[in-house]
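Chapter summary example.
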Amino acid sequence: MDIEQFRRAGYQAIDRICDYYISLRDKPVSSQVEPGYLRRALPASAPIEGEDFQLIADDYQKYIIPGLTHWQHPSFFAYFPAACTFEGILGELYACSASTPGFNWSASPACTELEAVVMDWTAQILGLDKSFYNTTEVGGGVIQTSASDSALIAAVAARSRYIREHPHVAMEKLVLYTTTQTHSLGKKAGLVLGLKVRALEVTAEDDFALRGETLEVALKEDVNAGLHPFILVATIGTTSSGAVDRLGEIADVAKHHPFLWLHVDAAWAGVALVCPEYREACQLPAVNTYADSFCTNFHKWGLINFDASCLWVRHRKHLTDALDITPEFLRSKQGDAGTVIDYRNWHLGLGRRFRSLKFWFVLRSRGVNGFQKYITDCTKLNARFAERIRESDQFCFVAKPFLALTVFRLAPKSHPHLTTLELNTLNRAFYARLAARSDIAITQTDLNGLFCVRMAIGAEKTEEMDVDRALDVIGQEGRTALREWERTCGL
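The structure predicted for these 491 residues follows.
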């Protein structure tokens, strides 16, 4: 492909992307293909001779788009949102237009320097303490692939710090703390590092949040057993319930265990800190006072295309002490002088994508006001949804609605004496009906033995009419599931 061919193919690609978004509302939310569809459609091996690019571009439309689940669809309410904006798309296009591995400053100075700048920009708009800024040259921020990577890197740094201060402690004595509502990233970090993981119990009575008393009991038990808890992964906005762990209570206990690293995972809810009115509920003062590291994903609820996970640490030296390996061929005058950041020592890999460019594009294009409007619009839509659930005689909340998340279940007032087992059976049937539909995407979860449904609003194109339609669909499928359950039970 020469320059002029690339120019024509690029124009067509942009046109087709625009057409995709124009028609998005008319598409089914979920892909309708069957497993293995693509292998059956494509040749068994790559072509010997190169093919015309127009054929390749047309095959994208023919084979790939039908296999996409449309996360930007106005009726996509599953999991958590996955951001995708036109500014972010263009940022990615420019970023991949020149190969920039970014493993040290001299590999492409703009990659390193822009990342350091936009991580301070994002820290500022979220209200993070200045100790997390790169300009301090003590703390700092770095873009990671995902919140799972961020948690793993925090665990590596915490383990290194703990062993450095306690050199006679055996690895098998270390314990990583999560809660029973922590994302699987906590268990994954323990699995990768070969460490014990203890999930501390949380209850519905505490809104599924970790309390200081629970942590205190666990620490006493484990220390008395000769174990060494070295990190706690706390959460602001858990996946299943939107729970916010009580960071102040946790810190009151942790101060008696100064080498217990506090990592705060706010993968979804953290971006809401851009709005001052949500900072108290999201415990920003406690984050700024107590957290050793903090993570939020701008590629979830932050308008920046995947991957865009932000990790800030209060003391960057704990990262570099754990991860700095610099063979002779990676040394540079600037790195040796300590005048630049070499981000390869802030993550597990060597090379890095030029991810800061899309941050720069989106932050400048939207501005703080644009981010705030997006977050508040989503939250208002969820309040509209939650109010209808609250007023319903069909449904009830399983957790308090939080920001743009509502967790609920079918609990008809016409059958007030159903057991947990009966309600779970009914709700599984109800969710199966929702999951079978192609015009809405929504996910299920389990909260301490209660099967329930999650409604997470975040697609930028979602409007009131989409939420109202979702309510109609949910109500209709709830009534049908109840009738079928009554018929099965002979009621």
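To summarize the output: The chain has a mean pLDDT of 96.
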